[in-house]
Amino acid sequence: MNTHIINIGDELLIGQVINTNASWMALQLNLSGVNVSKTIVIADSEKEIENSILSSLKEADCILITGGLGPTKDDITKTTLAKLFSSPLIENKEVLENIKNIFSLRGFPLTSTNRKQALVPKDCKVINNPYGTAPGMCFEKDNKLIISMPGVPFEMQNMMTNYVIPLILSHYKPIAIIHKTLLTCGLGESFLSDLIEPFELSLPKYIKLAYLPSANFLRLRLSAKGENRDSIEKELNNQVNKLLPLIKDYFIGFDFDDPSLVLAEELKKRKQTISTAESCTGGNIAHRITINPGASQYYKGSVVSYSNQTKIQVLGVEKEFIETFGAVSREVAEKMAKNVREKLNTTYSIATTGIAGPSGGSEEKPVGDIWIAIACENGDVISKKFNFYSSRENFISRATNQALFMIINLLSTTEI
Amino acid sequence: MNTHIINIGDELLIGQVINTNASWMALQLNLSGVNVSKTIVIADSEKEIENSILSSLKEADCILITGGLGPTKDDITKTTLAKLFSSPLIENKEVLENIKNIFSLRGFPLTSTNRKQALVPKDCKVINNPYGTAPGMCFEKDNKLIISMPGVPFEMQNMMTNYVIPLILSHYKPIAIIHKTLLTCGLGESFLSDLIEPFELSLPKYIKLAYLPSANFLRLRLSAKGENRDSIEKELNNQVNKLLPLIKDYFIGFDFDDPSLVLAEELKKRKQTISTAESCTGGNIAHRITINPGASQYYKGSVVSYSNQTKIQVLGVEKEFIETFGAVSREVAEKMAKNVREKLNTTYSIATTGIAGPSGGSEEKPVGDIWIAIACENGDVISKKFNFYSSRENFISRATNQALFMIINLLSTTEI
Question: Is the complex ipTM more than 0.90?
Answer without folding.
Answer: no
